[in-house]
Design goal:
- By secondary structure, the protein is of the alpha/beta class.
- The chain has a single domain (51-246), classed as 3-Layer(aba) Sandwich (Rossmann fold).
- It is built from eleven helices and eight strands.
- Strand 7, helix 8 and strand 8 (194-196) form a beta-alpha-beta unit.
- The protein is globular, with a radius of gyration of 17 Å.
- The structure holds ligand PTJ.
- Ligand PTJ binds at residues 28, 30-31, 34-35, 37-38, 41, 75-77, 101-103, 161-164, 180-183, 186, 199-201.
- Residues 28, 30-31, 34-35, 37-38, 41, 75-77, 101-103, 161-164, 180-183, 186, 199-201 line the site of ligand PTJ.
Length: 251
């Protein structure tokens, strides 16, 4: 039991969720390594949601609201860290979540399905029970398998916590991709239409809040937000912020 006044309480708490996720068959061991990489970048951005992330959150909310059919992709780490928040976002968008796994096994599909179902038994959860049968062209890994009723049909996909080639391949088939990744240098971060460089535990609730707030905006305003957004510029801002913070750091 970690005391709440421990200076690294939050970090230790989220690690414990992942540890439990491994025990429950939701998270793979390499998910712990992925989390460690995220933590390192979180240190570099000051463990706070910075301005570059807030701008991306606004653009992401606008794009999700403009979508005909947005889908929220969930991997093992997302299911362990923020299952409630992923469901809340999907509910706010009146859409589905889809389980998409790099290390896909029927047991993990089932464990994640049960975790999500336990939070909201009315939620539309795709990608389980062998339903991920459509292969994204050119993507050989298991991540390339998606549900024909979900990501395969979606026009906007939220792809959090992955450094790989799915974002690129999804864009090749005409999808808009939003990613959440603390590493502004990852492949997903660089290939997405919108990259939220922030910890998913902080930014997912902010994204849902923004969706709620912009829900009543007119289409023109949403289009303007998306059109004014520049992802390369945002990634540059994140990298500049990190570099400056390191140079200015007093020890
Ligand atoms: O559950 P599976 O089978 O799909 O496997 C999941 C992992 C996470 C192992 C896999 O999808 C993966 O791609 O791991 P990577 O390649 O290390 O990518 C994870 C990315 O997420 C890295 O760029 C990390 O910086 C970032 N990341 C990790 N934790 C967080 C994060 N970004 C935001 N918030 C976090 N909490």
């Amino acid at each position: 039991m970690v005391p709440k006044n421990h200076p690294r309480y939050h970090s230790l708490y989220y690690r414990s969720l992942l540890e439990r996720g491994v025990d429950e068959g939701i998270v793979v061991k390499t998910g712990l390594i992925a989390h460690g990489r995220g933590e390192a970048f979180d240190y570099l951005i000051g463990e706070k949601t910075q301005g570059f992330a807030r701008k991306a959150i606004e653009a992401a909310a606008a794009l999700l609201l403009l979508a005909g059919y947005p889908v929220v992709s969930v991997n093992g780490n997302v299911a362990a860290l923020v299952p409630e928040d992923a469901i809340m976002l999907a509910k706010e968008l009146d859409t589905a979540v889809e389980i998409n796994l790099f290390y896909r096994t029927p047991e993990r599909e089932e464990a994640i399905y049960e975790r999500l179902r336990g939070i909201d038994d009315g939620m539309r959860i795709l990608g389980a029970s062998g339903s991920a049968t459509y292969r994204i062209p050119g993507l050989e890994s298991n991540r390339g398998l998606v549900d024909p009723r979900g990501i395969a049909k979606a026009d906007v996909v939220l792809v959090p916590l992955e450094d790989g080639d799915r974002t690129e391949k999804l864009r090749d088939i005409g999808k808009n991709v939003i990613t959440i990744d603390l590493n502004p240098l990852s492949r997903s971060a660089r290939f997405a239409d919108i990259t939220i460089v922030d910890n998913i535990v902080r930014c997912l609730p902010l994204l849902t809040q923004k969706v709620k707030q912009l829900k009543h905006a007119d289409e023109e305003e949403l289009v303007e937000i998306v059109n004014n957004y520049d992802n390369k510029g945002i990634l540059k801002e994140a990298l500049t912020f990190i570099s400056k913070r390191l140079l200015d750091m007093e020890l």
